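Hey team,

Filing this mostly as a record. A colleague (T.K.) asked me to run one chain through the structure pipeline before their review meeting, and I want the input and output archived in the tracker in case anyone asks later how it was produced. No errors, nothing strange. Just documentation.

Input sequence:
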Amino acid sequence: MAKNADTGIISTGKKKTATARASFKEGKGNIRINSQPLEQWGSDYERGLIIEPLQIAQSYISNCDISINVAGGGRVGQAVATRTAIARGIYKWSKNNEKLRQAFLEYDNKLLAGDSRLKEACKPGRSKARARRQKSYR
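Output structure:
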């Protein structure tokens, strides 16, 4: 998470192969994901995941525009990566407020830490990670 005079604060989030990069600037409170308003992006479930950190930290981001670029993975993975990027950026925007950090951790410890789990790799000689040939007894 870097702070730049032109862009404000930049934060990142990852989930499997999805990567989200959020930039925070002074503004009116607009949130855009891949140049689309939040209300038009994804399904209701995915939007619900994304607005969780926004609801927890409403008072900290009333004067902040958030622009997110997300790529890779599936839609839910992108939503979770976006959620993590937003939570980290809000925490940084609030100048590392300990009350906000505790609120995020009490709600879900993956908001700031992220989720490091990946898809299991395929094993040699098998079509999938755990699949084996069916055994015949007769």
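Quick notes for T.K.: The radius of gyration is 18 Å. The mean pLDDT is 88.
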